[in-house]
Design goal:
single chain, alpha+beta, Glutaredoxin, 5-stranded mixed β-sheet, 678 residues, 24 helices, 3 domains
Length: 678
């Protein structure tokens, strides 16, 4: 299962004000099991290079390729420990020895070299490209050509941010069908032409063109690429890397010692010398290169072939969904989220919604038949009706045999008023199969490996995400700012305290307490509510009431995903005008379900004020005037500057603590910090 990523989302409210999260993953994947996570969370991607994680080795089913690169026979093991496939060695156009390991991975250099440098790389990664263009040529001349180093190339495509990378890795292996020299020629061509194929949907044509330019049999190459016969080999490389702790590209191992990032030549030269002399690479020898910016995915382009579409084709936002009718997460999206998207965005002309098929037959053997059934219904102008029924009745048809599922499809068609004979003839003819397969191949070329996967104006959003994520992404896409959602930002360093101004923020506890906790909160945030319900009462009882903690409240309403959060923060401050901040604070969280998502939240909050025996006229007037918005925005800006990018966020004596942590974390931190003041 892919790992979630943190992205910086800049939400406009007259200025860039808040940092939040999007994303990944609730999806069905092809790795032999269904994978998924509810909700969304705040986790990070990429620092000094393109970063993501891939499934650990145990989660991948790696099969033998239909056609092996290496000749059959026993592998040859050199004193370097490198096992070479027999018959695979040759010399490339630059006069360098090349070949394949016994596992099928390409190497460049003398397999008897005393230094084995293993590279885990991604053909679409700009930092990998920098290594190939700027550093590798000198390494080839100075170390590889002299027999000092042999380079072994492992696949590690980060498909969540580089959707065309897996297909590029397969292209290299398809070139390798004609030998190791052809593999490396394609390797070099892919990096040299990165800007020409990244983000394109017709990568098969482009890669075939490169194959022709380097003198390969283009028909054989295309057949290989379209068959996907080397997908397992690429997965195997990712699995090996993950098992060894690789999380970013490029990553290297020099005789087993790790060196990460597209470092300058001097760093590699020094590292090779250190390892050659029997030394160990220490943290001091690791490069001091500054962190690279986060990697923004290349927007994908799509073919005109799709299963169905709804909405205005001229809408400012296009959502393309790759779906699998047997996938339970796709069903959840279809039943829970899509109706809301239709009501709020598609019917209003803001979103054009496109369905493409991606049946993952390895875990959903009836998905392709279901996709065909939906398309056959589409021939009678009933695609969307069949789409809805297939997902609604998924348990009824998804657990039987093909014949049983086809019979179920026929019954659904009859209930929808379709002509049974025409539908059955379409189903039996298989005339929609080629179009389903074309969508599947297109998805694979883009890096889709799980369902549902969405592309919003070309930017990937994997998984059955809640409506709030779509709200956020659509809002950014309409402003042509969706790329900003993928810009990585570092978290505050919890070991380095910062000064947090308390100002006149609401608070509870002894002003002279040795420990100050400042919470940045969002009244509509479910994690803030969890903190309020589970952890905050224990902090009050054990630390605030005993005089050890002063607890301060600041606002951080994330209005793009929590539209009532701002008015709720205003309600708390309007109650504070009458000396009732804490009572309103507690009521807003305790009864979050009553007002969250409601258009009449202001009226509900006035009702809360009445229950608290406040002057409701003054309270209502305060809400209507929005006089506290400037103060709330000041908190929001302050939190953003301090590095808050999700709620709840805390500073304990200036030390950052992110998220709704369990009480034990606060207990340990408060105890340690209080002891330092004694």
């Amino acid at each position: 299962m892919l790992k979630n990523h943190r992205y910086k989302l800049l939400v406009s409210a007259g200025q860039l004000i808040s940092i939040m999260t999007i994303v990944l993953l609730v999806a069905c994947g092809p790795a032999g099991t269904e994978s998924g996570r509810d909700g969304w969370t705040d986790v990070s991607a990429g620092v000094s290079s393109s970063t993501a994680t891939v499934p650990p080795a145990d989660d991948l089913e790696v099969e033998e390729d239909a056609a092996s690169i290496a000749d059959q026979g026993a592998a040859v093991t050199f004193h370097s420990g490198l096992e070479v496939a027999p018959g695979s060695q040759e010399v490339d156009a630059n006069g360098l020895p090349v070949g394949f390991t016994s596992e099928g991975f390409a190497f460049r250099g003398d397999p008897q070299a005393p230094i084995v440098m293993e590279e885990f790389s991604d053909y679409q990664c700009p930092f990998c490209n920098r290594f190939v263009q700027e550093t590798l040529p000198s390494l080839e001349t100075n170390q590889i050509a002299k027999g000092e180093v042999v380079l072994v190339y492992y696949d590690f495509p980060l498909s969540s941010i580089h959707p065309q990378a897996p297909a590029a890795h397969e292209a290299a292996y398809c070139a390798g069908e004609e030998g190791a020299a052809a593999y490396w020629a394609m390797h070099d061509a892919l990096f040299a032409n990165l800007n020409g194929w990244a983000g394109q949907s017709n990568t098969t044509d482009l890669f075939t063109g490169y194959a022709g330019e380097i003198g390969l049999d283009v028909e054989q190459f295309r057949t290989c690429l379209e068959s996907g016969q080397f997908a397992a080999r690429v997965q195997q490389g990712s699995s090996i890397g993950a098992a060894r702790g690789v999380t970013s590209t490029p990553s290297f191992f020099i005789n087993g010692q790790a060196l990460t990032g597209a470092q300058p030549l001097e760093t590699f030269t020094q590292a090779i010398e250190t390892v050659s002399s029997g030394g160990q690479l220490t943290s001091a020898q690791q490069p001091s290169e500054p962190p690279q910016p986060g990697v923004v995915p290349t927007p994908a382009a799509f073919s005109d072939d799709y299963a169905a579409a709804m909405g205005d084709p001229q809408a400012p936002v296009t959502i393309v969904e790759f779906t699998d009718y047997q996938c339970p997460y796709c069903a959840r999206h279809a039943e829970q989220t899509l109706p809301q998207l239709i009501q709020q965005y598609i019917d209003s002309g803001e979103v054009y919604y496109v369905i493409k098929d991606f049946p993952i037959e390895s875990i959903h053997p009836l998905a392709r038949s279901a996709a065909g059934a939906a398309r056959c219904a589409g021939e009678q102008d009933s695609y969307w009706q069949m789409h809805d029924e297939l997902f609604a009745r998924q348990p009824l048809w998804a657990n039987g045999a093909h014949a049983d599922s086809n019979a179920a499809f026929g019954r659904i068609a009859a209930e929808l008023g379709l002509d049974p004979a025409t539908f059955e003839a379409c189903l039996q003819s298989g005339r929609q199969d080629a179009r389903v397969e074309a969508n599947f191949v297109e998805g694979r070329s883009l890096g889709v490996n799980a369902t549902p996967t969405f592309y919003i104006n070309g930017y990937p959003v994997p998984g059955a995400q809640p409506l709030e994520i779509f709200d956020l992404a659509i809002g950014l896409a309409k402003e042509d700012r969706l790329s900003e959602a993928y810009v990585q930002e570092p978290e505050p360093d919890p070991s380095q305290p910062v000064d947090v101004s308390l100002g006149d923020a609401p608070r509870v506890g002894d002003a002279d307490a040795p420990v100050v906790i400042v919470e940045y909160t969002d009244f509509q945030c479910p994690y803030c509510s969890r903190h309020f319900q589970q952890t905050y009462p224990q902090i009050l009882k054990n630390f605030v009431e005993t005089g050890r903690v002063l607890y301060v409240f600041k606002d951080f309403p994330l209005t793009n995903i929590h539209p009532q959060a701002m008015i709720a923060a205003e309600a708390a401050r309007c109650a504070d005008d009458q000396g009732a901040y804490l009572r309103m604070h507690d009521m807003l969280f305790a009864r979050q379900g009553e007002w969250s998502g409601r258009g009449d939240a202001a009226e509900i909050f006035t009702g809360f004020a009445s229950e608290l025996n406040l002057d409701t006229d003054i309270f209502a007037s305060c809400l209507e005037s929005h006089r506290h918005q400037a103060g709330i925005m000041a908190d929001l800006d302050e939190g953003a500057r301090l590095g808050i990018r999700g709620t709840p966020g805390f500073f304990i004596n200036g030390h950052f603590l992110s998220g709704a942590q369990p009480y034990q974390v606060f207990e340990q931190t408060v105890t340690e910090l209080a002891a330092q003041t004694e």
